[in-house]
Every structure is written in structure tokens, then in C-alpha cells.
Design brief:
The chain has about 130 residues and is mainly β. About 0% of the residues lie in helices and about 60% in strands. The strands form 3 sheets. The chain has a 5-stranded antiparallel sheet, with no helix packed on it. A 5-stranded antiparallel sheet has the order 6-7-14-12-9, with no helix packed on it. The chain is elongated and about 45 Å long.
């Protein structure tokens, strides 16, 4: 396990990085953990705190939380048209505010969370059509 000092938004944190496999690392800051995927020794992507899943039957995109956290702000409403990359909501996890963005353009069919709500890994946040 390696230890690093990380500066984010003016705050300094101690981070511990543990290699889980050739492509997966676990990063711990305080008591919070996030997994990071790497490819060819370069960081490919931090696992997003949201995971879009496209359903075969309806073509809807179900966006799930990849981390436990608290919804601090919802920036869209149901039936609103959004573009890929638009911020849908803010999720506070690991003492950081994380933007949950639309993985594709579409219409917000359903918002399944509310501001102040605590969510767990796998909870559905938003459904796009």
C-alpha cells in the first residue's frame, strides 16, 4: 500500500492506494474508498460514482450510484431534455462534491432521489429515455 498527499479544492487529504489486480486499485481517503481502473499503467478512468445501464427492452438509461453518498443538489426535473455531459445532480461522497452527468442526450423520465437523501452503491438515481 502506498500513501499520497492529495490536494483538492484547497484541502489536503492523505490517500492510501492498494493494488487489487493489474487493472484495479482501491483508494482510501479517511474512511471512504473508491476503486480506480487502469490500463497499460496509465489511469484509464476513475470509476464514476454513477453507472449508466441501458436496458434492452426500452432503451432507457438507468443511472446508478457507484458509491455511497448524499444527494446535495438536483439540477434537472422530470421531462426535461438533457444533452450528453449535462450535470443531473450533485452527490457528496468521500467529502467531495461529485457531478453526476448524463451519459447520453435524452429526456429525464424519472428522478428517483431527493435532495438530502443518502444513497448506497447500486441505488438508481435517474432514468433517461
Amino acid at each position: 500500500m502506498k500513501k499520497f498527499r492529495v490536494k483538492l479544492s484547497g484541502n489536503v487529504y492523505q490517500a492510501e492506494v492498494e493494488k487489487v489486480s493489474d487493472y484495479l486499485y482501491r483508494v482510501r481517503v479517511d474512511d471512504n474508498v473508491i476503486e480506480v481502473e487502469v490500463e497499460s499503467e496509465a489511469v484509464k478512468a476513475v470509476k464514476s460514482i454513477s453507472k449508466p445501464v441501458k436496458t434492452q427492452e426500452t432503451g432507457e438509461r438507468v443511472i446508478q450510484s457507484m458509491l455511497p453518498g448524499t444527494v446535495t443538489k438536483i439540477l434537472v426535473s422530470e421531462r426535461e431534455e438533457v444533452n450528453a455531459g449535462d450535470t443531473l445532480l450533485i452527490l457528496e461522497a468521500m467529502k467531495m462534491e461529485n457531478e453526476i452527468v448524463a451519459p447520453a442526450s435524452g429526456k429525464v423520465k424519472e428522478i428517483r432521489v431527493s435532495e438530502g437523501q443518502r444513497v448506497e452503491t447500486g441505488d438508481v438515481l435517474v432514468v433517461l429515455e
